[in-house]
Amino acid sequence: QVRLVESGGGLVQAGESLRLSCAASGSIFRFNAMAWYRQVPGKQRELVATITPGGITDYAGVVKDRFTISRDNAKNTMYLQMNSLKPEDTAVYYCRVATSVWWGQGIQVTVSS
Hints:
- This protein is an all-beta fold.
- The protein has strands spanning about 5, 10-15, 20-25, 35-40, 45-50, 55-60, 65-70, 75-80, 90-95, 105-110.
- The protein has a 6-stranded mixed β-sheet, with no helix packed on it. It has a 4-stranded antiparallel β-sheet with strand order 1-3-8-7, with no helix packed on it.
- The N and C termini lie far apart (about 40 Å).
């Protein structure tokens, strides 16, 4: 059984920063790519960023140069550093073991203008 728990969300003003964390239980974390997604009500869940077990990253164009995904395999934890936040970044953010059925419960990020 894999459990993913997000933390670090909240309400910030435009231009500010937040760091999300995703703590994973189980032994699969270090062997799998991980991903952050986000979803706005009424819209499809969208991929934000991915990171391979070795640390190779990829980003959606709308967050590139503002968000940084990272991981600490020793702590079974993944992070998403979000800088220069915009109101359009407001969403529920989810972590996922990439391409798997394992998702976190989601955490709200709200950016006010």
